[in-house]
Automatic annotation (TrEMBL):
It comes from Trapa natans. It holds the Pfam family adh_short. This is Short-chain dehydrogenase TIC 32, chloroplastic. SUPFAM superfamilies: NAD(P)-binding Rossmann-fold domains. Gene3D superfamilies: NAD(P)-binding Rossmann-like Domain (3.40.50.720).
């Protein structure tokens, strides 16, 4: 299958062209051969398969965006393995329904829902405060929630919506919960794990990577580049966090991942996607069970114990763009994010 490249006349790829790149590359690599990587898993592995035989009893995990898509499947599988899962959800009615459904299927499951809107810094602060007050430990933080390819919109805090939701909300949440994770890791002698759900779209941000001086520039806004900006920010965040945690000698890891092209409501702003799912979808688009696999692999699998500051795809180590490895860009993003959340 032909791999489509962006024409030289365009600065940024369209969503359709990005999907074309992804389809061409991953159709060949994923679905034709289904080769297993060094981990023993492949693109077709499911979240249940990559966690088979793992006992997560005694672990507590927070999953943001847990009411749908891969967040919901991640919650389901972590609960199945015995973890106590806190779902961060915007819609509490949906959260309660999910909790009821999971506990009906898995009577021993421990699942709770707490209100969380990642696009609102006030909501993030309230969630973190309320969680700490519960007294629950925190072993695993899965920064999963996100929006994709939205029209130009500002968050409640007057910050471009994709950056605000996908990166900044998670940046603040992680910082607010980090001391609690340090305490849990110290008292339990169990490794803490922070997981940022990124995307291969991190390869297509604005030219400068992060538009520090034009974050809210409506005139220059491009929905694909803005999404790519937020996704490279997820990787830079995990990498810089790793650097800081290693300096402290804390038993907490931080990694990022690409879940694959997954049939979820994230694509509601991409018209081509609806047609693809009904025609070629079965050949190259992952279902949610496969899409949640890498997240669950990083959360529970002992193969990644001690691994930090890495990027994964298909439950195997993968490579990022050169810009996503830029240490100085990561440091600058960290300071920039700290100033935004003050």
């Amino acid at each position: 299958m032909t791999s489509f490249l962006p024409p030289l006349t365009f600065k940024y790829p369209t969503a359709e062209r990005l999907l074309g790149d992804e389809v061409g590359r991953r159709t060949r690599r994923m679905w034709l051969f289904r080769r297993k990587g060094p981990s023993g898993f492949s693109s077709s592995s499911t979240a249940e398969e990559v966690t088979e035989g793992i006992d997560a009893t005694g672990l507590t995990a927070i999953v943001t965006g847990a009411s749908s898509g891969i967040g919901l499947e991640t919650t389901h599988v972590l609960a199945l393995r015995g973890a106590h899962v806190i779902m961060g959800v915007r819609n509490m009615a949906a959260g309660r329904d999910i909790r009821e459904a999971i506990t009906k299927e898995i009577p021993t499951a421990k699942v709770d829902a707490m209100e969380l809107d990642l696009s609102s810094l006030a909501s993030v602060r309230k969630f973190a405060s309320d969680f700490i007050l519960t007294g629950f430990p925190l072993n695993i933080l899965i920064n999963n929630a996100g929006v994709m390819l939205t029209p130009y919109t500002l968050s409640k805090d007057k910050i471009e919506l994709q950056f605000a939701t996908n990166h900044l909300g998670h940046f603040l949440l992680t910082n607010l919960l980090l001391d609690h994770m340090r305490k849990t890791a110290g008292e339990s002698s169990k490794e803490g794990r922070i997981i940022n759900v990124s995307s291969e779209a991190h390869r297509f941000p604005y030219r400068e990577g992060i538009r520090f001086d034009k974050l809210n520039d409506e005139k220059g806004y491009n929905s694909m580049a803005a999404y790519g900006q937020s996704k490279i920010a997820n990787i830079l965040h995990a990498n810089e966090l790793t650097r800081r945690l290693k300096e402290e000698g804390v038993n907490i890891t931080a990694n990022s991942l690409h879940p694959g092209v997954v049939a979820t409501n994230l694509f509601r702003h991409v018209n081509i996607f609806n047609g693809l799912t009904t025609t070629l979808g079965k050949y190259f688009i992952k279902n949610v069970q496969q899409g949640a696999a890498t997240t669950c692999y990083l959360a529970l699998n002992p193969q990644v114990k001690g691994v930090s500051g890495e990027y994964f795809a298909d439950s195997n180590l993968s490579k990022t763009s050169k810009k996503a490895k830029d240490v100085e860009l990561g440091k600058k993003l960290w300071d920039f994010s700290v100033n935004l959340v003050k």
